[in-house]
Amino acid sequence: MATNGVSAALALKARAVSLCAVSLLFNRYTLFLVGVYAYSMVILMLGGLGGVLAFTEMEPLMLFRYGETTGVMLKKEYWELTLLFYLYCYFNMILRPSRWQAWLAALPLFYAYLGQDIYFLMYSNVFRFSELAEVPELLKVLSLPYIGLLVLFVVLPLGYFLWSINYRKFWLVLVGGLPLVLLIGAAEWYPEQYTATYRKVGRPIEYWSDAVSAENNGRFMMLLYREAERQMARAKTAVYRDRGEYERQAQQLAGWVAANGNKRNVHLVVLESFLDPTLFKNASYTKDPFHPSFKKLFGNRMGFSLSPVVGGKTAQAEFEVLCGVPAFEELAGVEFNSFTGASAYCLPGALQAAGYRTMASNAYNPSFFNAPNAYQGMGFAKMYFPREYVNGSDSYLIKGDTSKEMGYMYDGTIFSQNLEFIAPLLQEADGPPLFNYLLTIYGHFPHELNEEKRPKVLKMLSKFKDQHLERAANQIFYRSQAVAEYVNRLLELDEKSLIILVSDHTPPGQYGRKSFQKLGYLNNKEDSLHMNRIMIIEEGKVKKFTTIHHYDIPAMVMNSITDGAYCKEHTCGFAQNKLLDDRMSRHEDYMRLMAHASE
């Protein structure tokens, strides 16, 4: 009997232990974490952002940045997970007990994540606080059925959540929410301290991709970090912010351009790493790297433009080319990341105000460099990205076959699609003039070639070997052919147009700057790594100027479309055939522009 009693007691203890283990493993809090994981995996499969604890497919650039050989890596968003868990516990504490309490506590977090993910799936861009300003406008254009669905599935459930809070626990509601208030307050009112601290404790913040940064750190963490950056930019530029006067000056310039302009169409192309391989003093080739059609068109009439960057940060080159001021990197590093969509009146904005149609066509992912907000703030009325990146939304671009070339859209593909799209616009007899801007991506490091489509045509002969730059030289043969075909077709459609093609920056090379030094790029003279090829065609004639800066290009455009009147009223080094050392004298213009771009 005693033995049976002991056995029964042990069985009861074992059962109690098992029940305790089950309660520890299968309670609302562990199930919440499992739900977060499941949600992340579902969104990822739908093409959204990788989330907390989820395996995510890496972009080609990430593979090279982290030196990975596989296509996935585990995201460890520790701070995001801590915040989510804290908020879930807090909501459970302040809600009145009910059978729906565990689900109701997760509801605001689910909607907060879902809203950001829907935004990303629709626009391929990471949501920022500045986008909240567009919500009233969105509500105005929603049809009644959509408003009804919004009320039914969002407003009413959130209203029920607020009604279910036990407001009698006033101090618990107040004290429990204090950490969240302090976190948001730190980002808003102490942004420098917030960003400095987060850079020490968080995972890397990638300047080239909001999406990658959000996957590294979490949606909420990046939302707060980018808001802190915006507040820093606003504080640094506060003395330069005068929207009324800024708008007045922009409209004054637009009116002057409209009155003095010749309505010439403008085609501006920024070419990814468009390297001139013949500039290596210590290398030769088994074949001319430039295609015969390109040589026939440009010959020795290619010029040079000084880029602000070397080997990367394409958005910095874009910023200078489109905004006409140096990229000082004084706010959020890469200037594109400071744009909120507020009107900054860069070159496209000034031209749009003067009556031009302004459009940007970007061959890559809109989540890179905050491009949609930057393009909108610069003044592009229309912007297009490959449909594969924007879930088939309104875009004429299709990436095409990018197999074995790291997903990079070939220059000839974007050129041919652009020509087909703009041809009807150029043929409109009474249509407004066109500002047609393109950014290419093919030729990006490490210059992979699909040799089934574009076989190697040359070898680099040099004591110093660099396989990447040899591949780049082979790519240039095909890319220069695509450029020549594009320009010749543009001239057939509109011989009077202004066409400018410029390389964004020199590529990094297999061994970085060492490759260029060993190969003697431009004989290693001062600033040689910043010197990039520029090709200019005005009214059917190829023109060559002395070396310019990327930020001189907007003035060059303005001067062309006003038949030289612009440079009679403004200082233009290229018009005097000399390179001006005027970087610092443009600092105030830079600060004024960024003050309004970051509003």
From TrEMBL:
<keyword id="KW-0812">Transmembrane</keyword>
<feature type="transmembrane region" description="Helical">
    <location>
        <begin position="170"/>
        <end position="190"/>
    </location>
</feature>
<keyword id="KW-0472">Membrane</keyword>
<keyword id="KW-1003">Cell membrane</keyword>
<protein>
    <submittedName>
        <fullName>Sulfatase</fullName>
    </submittedName>
</protein>
<dbReference type="InterPro" id="IPR050448">
    <property type="entry name" value="OpgB/LTA_synthase_biosynth"/>
</dbReference>
<dbReference type="InterPro" id="IPR000917">
    <property type="entry name" value="Sulfatase_N"/>
</dbReference>
<feature type="domain" description="Sulfatase N-terminal">
    <location>
        <begin position="264"/>
        <end position="555"/>
    </location>
</feature>
<dbReference type="GO" id="GO:0005886">
    <property type="term" value="C:plasma membrane"/>
</dbReference>
<feature type="transmembrane region" description="Helical">
    <location>
        <begin position="32"/>
        <end position="55"/>
    </location>
</feature>
<dbReference type="InterPro" id="IPR017850">
    <property type="entry name" value="Alkaline_phosphatase_core_sf"/>
</dbReference>
<feature type="transmembrane region" description="Helical">
    <location>
        <begin position="102"/>
        <end position="123"/>
    </location>
</feature>
<dbReference type="Pfam" id="PF00884">
    <property type="entry name" value="Sulfatase"/>
</dbReference>
<feature type="transmembrane region" description="Helical">
    <location>
        <begin position="143"/>
        <end position="163"/>
    </location>
</feature>
<keyword id="KW-1133">Transmembrane helix</keyword>
